[in-house]
Amino acid sequence: MTEVATTTTTLNRFEKFKAEKDGLAIKSEIEKFASIGWEAMDDTDRDHRLKWVGVFFRPVTPGKFMMRMRMPNGILTAAQMQVLAEVVQRYGDDGSADITTRQNIQLRGIRIEDLPEIFHKFHAVGLTSVQSGMDNVRNITGDPVAGLDADELFDTRKLVQQIQDMLTNKGEGNPEFTNLPRKFNIAITGGRDNSVHAEINDLAFVPAFREGIGDQGSGIGKITAQSSISDSQSPIFGFNILVGGFFSAKRCEAAIPLDAWVSPADVVAVCRAVLEVFRDHGSRANRLKSRLMWLIDEWGLEKFRSEVEQRLGKPFLPAAPKDEIDWEKRDHIGVYKQKQPELNYVGLHIPVGRMTAQDMFEIARLADVYGSGEIRFTVEQNIIIPNIHDSSLVFFLAEPLLEKFSIDPKPLTRSLVSCTGAQFCNFALIETKSRAQAVIKALEADLELTRPVRIHWTGCPNSCGQPQVADIGLMGTKARKNGKAVEGVDIYMGGKVGKEAQLGTCVQKGVPCEDLLPVLRELLVKNFDARLRESVLV
Ligand code: SRM
Ligand code: SF4
How many CB atoms lie within 10 A of CB 292? Predict the structure, then answer.
């Protein structure tokens, strides 16, 4: 690691334990931990450092760990899904897995004794969970229909994989990037609808055409600010860069334009440059003020850009005047034609992202039998199975699994997103996943809706369930009722996704969960054209 901006006297406690032993060092100790068991482990190794290999101690279920994978661009093979299902079935006492809001998957109920064998299985099929927690770069999101969508501008798959390979040394772990001041999120979108919520990432790349670049070879070092605008040729494709988007309990910000444009060939180098600047200059004093945007605030955008340019070894071209995000966001649920003739992708709705081992085996089987053995995740915690031929579509659609994972769910169910909540997360102030489903069921029984309304639940202000991007966001809090503390929510509204994305804000605080139903009913009727069913009116 190179210079760190703060002195040792101001380092927070996380910095201190990272300085004592890098999180990645844990990798060589897995066998030892497996033999001594979780209770004999050093507390810091168990509660924190294990997250560097994607293993999370759950104080709510001690001894049963969660494993967070990496799924570049949200894509995996049926063989990989099968291994994940086997792990959940064989080693996971609670037998389930969750698709996450970062196009990723988390496995539940894992025992420390089984880790060596689990890692061995992952290795055999090219899966990795490395650097997926704590002060590392999270799963990198890309367009869920990359390479399938006839209207896409750029296929993000390869780039996302290249960034992950650079950051993780092809899944083996890369100490260059295992001691960031805080977590870091990266997203790339190549379609027109911003399927990845670019605006809520620390670093995001959005499609944009640039006029007047002389050399279309566009390899690193070829595009410079000096390559003259007067050399004008037809517009070439690249990305405008956004920086500093994040949610935290203290502050939430949409990413801001860096006023920089890059060609696809430079994206990996830009990621490296931004991360180096963040690693070496981000604040390590107060973890509540360590995300990238705080550094940008401290320095100003000009200085930040120029530091990144220095690391990059060349100046940025100014941003293209407009980006190409001009569609409403799609949710990809249902059957859609691919750009490849006679092939279709089918989006299945996975209620709050939760799957049993049996579900996972079945999804893998369907992808193998009807598709090309590929499976994709979306940031709405759903699944896409691509490459289903016209001739087998009707048989696919008759599969029993589609009764559970529908291609045409009801409007509120369709867009429901929920974070983990109190069942497994010790930060949670409320239970989320089961409550979210129960509330939606009751609302759909009472209301007729003509369009989907995106309702997101999150169990605490950390905002993993992204309530600020929702039409209606529900954030767990402690409320008061009749003088007693009860589970409640703060209500957010106004979140907009896709083109002209914007964050929603809190419109009502501390609504007790037990009183929520009529409040939501009224919001849906007043703001989203919902109508009370006749049966409710009488
Ligand atoms: Fe998150 C911490 C779950 C997406 C902001 N998040 C946690 C922990 C690890 C806390 C813990 O140790 O219990 C949660 C694990 C619970 C569990 O057992 O599942 C957790 N976060 C999740 C997931 C699984 C929610 C979900 O159900 O989908 C998502 C996993 C994504 C992934 O695959 O990597 C998840 N978390 C997010 C997002 C959304 C996003 O990235 O688009 C955010 C807000 C965006 C952001 O980070 O800017 C988010 N999580 C946080 C924060 C607040 C960060 C901050 O700067 O303060 C924490 C707490 C922390 O880091 O200190 C947190
Ligand atoms: Fe846990 Fe809070 Fe994140 Fe939900 S929002 S997963 S409760 S940290």
Answer: 28
Question: Catalytic site residue 245?
Answer: no
Cβ neighbours of residue 459 closer than 8 Å, sequence gap 6 or more: 419, 420, 421, 422, 425, 427, 428, 429, 430, 431, 432, 465, 476
How many folded domains does the chain comprise? 3
**Centre of ligand 1 from the C-alpha of residue 506, in Å:** 20
Look at residue 141 and tell me if it is in a domain: no
Same domain, 303 and 352: no
Nearest ligand, CA 466: 1
Catalytic site residue from 354, 464, 476, 513: 464
> What are the residues facing 505 on neighbouring strands?
493
Q: Which of 407, 438, 468 is the last residue of a domain?
A: 407
Q: Is residue 3 part of a domain?
A: yes
Whether residues 276 and 222 fall in one domain: yes
Q: Per the residue annotation, which of 70, 102, 108, 182 is the catalytic one?
A: 182
Q: Which of 84, 164, 464 to mutate to test the pocket of ligand 1 (most atoms within 8 A of CB)?
A: 464
Same domain, 292 and 167: yes
- Indicate if 208 and 290 belong to the same structural domain: yes
Taking the complete model, does pTM exceed 0.85, yes or no?
A: yes
Q: Judge whether 147 lies within some domain.
A: no
* 459 belongs to the catalytic site: yes
Rounded to the nearest whole angstrom, what is the distance from the C-alpha of residue 134 to the centroid of ligand 1? 10
Q: Is 9 helix (H, G, I), strand (E, B) or coil?
A: helix
**Residue 152, in any domain of the structure:** no
Do residues 363 and 399 lie in contact, with contact meaning Cβ atoms separated by under 8 Å? no
Round to whole Å and give the CA distance between 412 and 523: 13
Catalytic residue list contains 465 = yes
Give all strands of the β-sheet with 65-68 in edge-to-edge order.
55-56, 65-68, 105-110, 96-99, 354-356
Q: Which of the four pLDDT bands, split at 50, 70 and 90, describes residue 181?
A: very high
68, 420, 429, 433, best to mutate for ligand 2 pocket (most atoms within 8 Å of CB): 420
Looking at the CA of residue 197, tell me the nearest atom of ligand 1.
42
Quickly list DSSP for 372-396.
SSEEEE-TTS-EEEEEEEHHHHHHH
Active site residue 111: no
pLDDT confidence of 213, banded at 50, 70, 90?
low
Ligand at minimal distance from the CA of 101 is 1
For the domain that residue 214 is a member of, what is the CATH number?
Answer: 3.30.413.10
pLDDT single digits (tens) 279-290:
999 999 999 999
Res 215: pLDDT: 47
> In this structure, are 88 and 7 located in the same domain?
yes
Instruction: Provide the domain limits for residue 252.
Output: 157-312
Testing ligand 1's pocket by substitution, the residue of 75, 106, 290, 462 carrying the most ligand atoms inside 8 A of its CB is: 462
Residues 302 and 403 in one domain: no
pLDDT for 151 beyond 60 = yes
Nearest ligand 1 atom to alpha carbon 250: 57
Identify which has the larger pLDDT, 461 or 234.
461
